[in-house]
């Protein structure tokens, strides 16, 4: 009786151990498959790269580019990086187009290496020269939030006034800063590249038709827009794990899924006249069928980390490896 018990216990223990190892091996396999770059035959053709939007001013209009550098920190062009200019309001809160729709009327233009010209309706343009603003010595202001640190260098009084006039139509209220690049390995506040799948925006517009005017894909503020092959259904992006942009494997840019982009009132602001949609669209519609990951914020668009840097060009072939 006693020896039988021992054997039974031994059997159970071995069973549990084997089970545990099997689960661990399966987990490791799944995890390594997800972490490792897909091999040459694991890519499927998805479509072409249609639009590149570079946003040097947080909340401002994008600069459309035919080609752009894609680094681990996101898009870069002429020595400028994404959201290198950030505004704060009088409460010390970051200005974004959801709370200040007229930020979208601020159109940055690249003038030369690290020099931008900001334009806005009925305003004389103003130059923002990062070479000059970041000439030593300069004072760095640190703002910490959720384990993320922003290092800011204040722009000039004339920049604050210009932006306040353009966005608030008064002399004061907003302050413009240069946001320095994070240090290597430092936590980013959001993943660097927001990818939009155009067919999903078409599908959304079909659902909205008759109720409200079609929504411009630009309202979602993606960095790149993928025009997919006709055989690819809308919301196919829900299963994208890896994206490779460029037919040539060596020079292609490779990105890995980081998170769904959860949407807020920002997408209800019309990019042409900076007004909010009176019917709360398209957010209201998205909430009816795109609450995938969050009970309040619908998913539309996908954030990617850059795994292999390089140059992105309009018209390049895009390949996918599914989750
Ligand atoms: C679209 O997909 C189909 C089926 O996979 C393929 O035969 C066709 O070549 C693709 N079109 C383009 C432009 O890649
Ligand atoms: C802004 O543009 C949208 C879309 O064209 C239009 O429906 C809306 O009436 C415009 N709003 C204003 C205030 O002009």
From TrEMBL:
Domain MOSC residues, every copy: 161-321
Xref: InterPro entries: MoCF_Sase_C (IPR005302), MOCOS_middle (IPR005303), Pyrv_Knase-like_insert_dom_sf (IPR011037)
Keyword vocabulary terms for this entry: Membrane, Transmembrane, Transmembrane helix
SUPFAM superfamilies named among the record's database cross-references: MOSC N-terminal domain-like (SSF141673), PK beta-barrel domain-like (SSF50800)
PROSITE patterns: MOSC
Transmembrane segments: 6-27
Protein name: Mitochondrial amidoxime reducing component 2
One MF annotation (Gene Ontology) recorded for this entry: catalytic activity
């Amino acid at each position: 009786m006693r020896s039988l018990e021992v054997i039974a216990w031994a059997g159970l223990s071995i069973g549990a151990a084997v089970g545990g190892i099997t689960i661990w091996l399966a987990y490791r396999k799944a995890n390594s498959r997800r972490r490792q770059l897909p091999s040459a035959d694991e890519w499927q053709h998805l479509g072409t790269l249609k639009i590149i939007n570079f946003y040097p001013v947080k909340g401002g209009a994008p600069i459309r580019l035919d080609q752009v550098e894609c680094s681990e920190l996101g898009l870069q062009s002429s020595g400028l990086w994404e959201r290198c200019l950030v505004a704060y309001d009088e409460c010390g809160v970051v200005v974004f187009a959801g709370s200040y729709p007229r930020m979208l009327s601020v159109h940055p233009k690249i003038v030369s290496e690290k020099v931008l010209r900001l334009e806005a309706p009925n305003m004389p343009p103003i130059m923002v020269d990062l070479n000059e603003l970041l000439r030593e010595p300069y004072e760095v202001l640190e703002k910490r939030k959720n384990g993320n640190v922003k290092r800011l260098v204040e722009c000039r009084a004339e920049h604050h006034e210009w932006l306040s006039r353009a966005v608030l139509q008064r002399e004061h209220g907003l302050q413009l800063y240069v946001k320095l690049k994070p240090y290597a390995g430092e936590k980013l506040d959001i993943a660097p590249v927001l990818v939009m799948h155009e067919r999903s925006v078409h599908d959304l517009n079909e659902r909205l038709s008759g109720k409200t005017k079609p929504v411009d894909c630009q309202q979602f503020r993606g960095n790149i827009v993928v025009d997919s092959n006709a055989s690819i259904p809308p919301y196919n992006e829900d299963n994208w794990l890896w994206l490779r942009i460029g037919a040539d494997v060596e020079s292609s840019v490779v990105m890995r899924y980081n998170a769904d982009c959860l949407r807020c009132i920002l997408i209800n602001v019309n990019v042409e006249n900076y007004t909010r949609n009176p019917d709360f669209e398209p957010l209201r519609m998205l909430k009816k069928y795109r609450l995938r990951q969050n009970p309040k914020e619908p998913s539309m668009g996908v954030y990617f980390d850059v795994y292999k840097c390089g140059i992105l060009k309009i018209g390049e072939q895009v390949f996918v490896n599914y989750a």
